[in-house]
Amino acid sequence: MDKMTAERYARHIRLPEIGAAGQQRLLDSRVLIIGMGGLGSPVALYLAAAGVGHLALADYDRVEPSNLQRQIIHGHADIGELKTESARRSLASINPALETTCLPYEQDPTELARQVELADAVVDCSDNFPTRFLLNRMTWKAKTPLVSGAAIRWDGQLATFDAGVAGSPCYRCLYQDDGSDGANCALEGVVAPLVGVIGTMQAQETVNVLLGKPALVGRLLLFDARRMDWRSLKLGRNAGCPVCAADTPQSL
Amino acid sequence: MKIWLNGEQTNIDSELTLADLASQQNLDEVRYAIEVNEEIIPRSEHPTHTLNEGDKVEIVTAIGGG
Prior knowledge:
Chain A is α/β, with parallel strands linked by helices. Chain A has helices at 3-8, 10-13, 19-27, 40-50, 83-94, 109-118, 129-142, 171-174, 185-188, 192-210, and strands at 30-34, 54-58, 99-103, 121-124, 146-152, 155-161, 219-224, 229-235. In chain A, strands 3-2-1-4-5-6-7-8 form an eight-stranded mixed β-sheet, sandwiched between helices. In chain A, helix 4 packs parallel to helix 5 (83-94) and helix 4 crosses helix 10. In chain B, 27% of the residues are buried. The N and C termini of chain B lie far apart (40 Å). At the A-B interface, strand 5, strand 6 and strand 8 of A face strand 3 and strand 4 of B.
């Protein structure tokens, strides 16, 4: 690590839990972020600043005026721009040493599976259930940790699923892969700082994961922004889960 | 028998299972999980998990927004 790099990450290196070795681990890491919206914005900004070496950014949307109330990686001048390109520029101004891969198209399952395998962690910042269930299946198969976050209206949820941790549940243990498409932020609304709260928690947990110390495996965190109330629920594996119970012994 | 359902005290029949509760609450169209006393009860246990007096039960609804 050169002098400038050591100085940039001095406050990390000062921490006994990170140190120079931990920072090097972050610098050598690659993280796939699915969705460059409300959650993806703080996730990408913090991971770039924290010195994660390579970020792959997946989103095929363009910046719209209604995004700017909460998607803080994009600016007014970026309206009409691909979100991945707008995000790449913001990230480069924070950390020019960061490597980025932009994936500004709907990926076929083969391409997405390859990106999941390349990554040391995947952060789910997507805005729809089909993507959430697909990512769950792919990350479970590839044994890549999945840091899952979601937010709508005044409510947020957060959990980590990691096939590499004995007894970890998966997203499909928590929710059924059927039912309605569910509410979306365009129809239901979402309060701006909430996505910052949940996204920043995802960024923190991703750093924990990359350092080998995930803290949200087997737990579901719920945040209620109206009451400013966090709850932590125990989340075990579902013995009947079609994704993770099929080929893995039960131990939680 | 009294339980707490989504923060409100509610009377239920004894021997009520989580599957019964889900059907009473019309959750068919919703992606949900059921929490009892700060623990998500796995779906495969819903037909056999009976509620006890004073249980704190919350329906947790999936959110997909990002």
